[in-house]
Amino acid sequence: MVIHALSIFDTISNLGDFFSGEAFFESAGYIWNALLKVANSLLTANITRDEYAEIWQKVKSLYTTFNALSSTLLVLFFVYGYCRESVDLKSNMTFITLIKMMFRLVVVANVMSLALTMMPKLFRCARLFAEVISGDKDYGFFFDGAKIYEDISSGNNGVMLCFITSIVFFFFTLACAFFLIQPILLRTMKVYMLAPFCGIALSTIASGGQAGYAYVRSFLGAVFSAALIAVVLSLSSNFIQTISIKSEEAIVRMLVYCLKMSTISASVKTVDSLMQKAFNL
After folding, report:
1. Direct distance between the N- and C-terminal alpha carbons of the chain, in angstroms, rounded to an integer
2. Contact by Cβ (8 Å): 260, 239
3. Counting C-beta atoms within 10 Å of the first and last residue's C-beta, which end of the chain has fewer, N or C?
């Protein structure tokens, strides 16, 4: 009977700890810090080897499939550009113009043939940029869930409000972490989506078209956006710990944490638009 009574007492005690909200506060801080490290590992991963090797082989296979069409389009666009320059009465088809067109044709043809060799090198440069920016520091921030619980429950708020606050904070942290990692995975998928169409896009340059240049800017923007994301991750810990609103109310401090975590997630989501506006990529 004594053992049974102790078991009931332990169960009630565990339920009390659960409904206190302290465990949810602690778990939220742990999950945020852990997922920040996951985000950094995804950002600095080699997307052509190891677990990514199979999908990269599929991308290479698609590129090879489209390469026959790309070679045909290259010739067609060159002929189109030559005819356009020849029949244009406002411009003269000079020898220098012909040399420029031939030079452009040779450059594009070589880039198309070396694209699959050059892409992993670009990925490596972006990965090294991200690693240099992120450094060896641990991401995350020190979050004392027990202290937050004590501050909230010690006031006139009551245990129930403390429990509700912990639940809301826990799921809000999960949502922010999700929206932090999702753009990083989306960046990788964008690279995989753009890579097979490299030859088709570049073939338009043979006629002097702008589609190929737009493709190059978009591709480089997707690849090197890793550097800006790494900047956000490297600043995240200091940004969260710098509480600009001084208050003795624990709930107010929780709101500040939520605002700053959502700001970090939103910053990662706006990397693409920032790359386009700042670097035209």
Report:
1. 73
2. yes
3. N
Note whether 257 and 210 are within 8 A (CB). no
pTM: 0.82
DSSP secondary structure of 166-179: HHHHHHHHHHHHHH
Which DSSP letter does residue 137 get? P
Report the alpha-carbon distance of residue 205 to residue 201 in Å, rounded: 8
Instruction: Please count the other Cβ atoms lying within 10 Å of the Cβ belonging to residue 90.
Output: 4
Average pLDDT over residues 130-154: 69
Q: Average pLDDT, stretch 133-144?
A: 67
The candidate with the shortest Cα–Cα distance to 141, out of 226, 227, 233, 229, is 233
SS3 annotation, 190-224? HHHHHHHHHHHHHHHHHHCCCHHHHHHHHHHHHHH
Q: CB-hemisphere CA count at 13 Å for 137? A: 16
Cα→Cα distances 34→30, 102, 141, Å: 6, 54, 10
Cβ neighbours, 10 Å, residue 126: 23
What's the count of helices (H) and strands (E) in the chain, helices before strands?
Answer: 10, 0
**What single-letter amino acid sits at 189?**
M
pLDDT tens per residue across span 183-200: 999 999 999 999 999 999
* Alpha carbon 154 to chain centroid, angstroms: 41
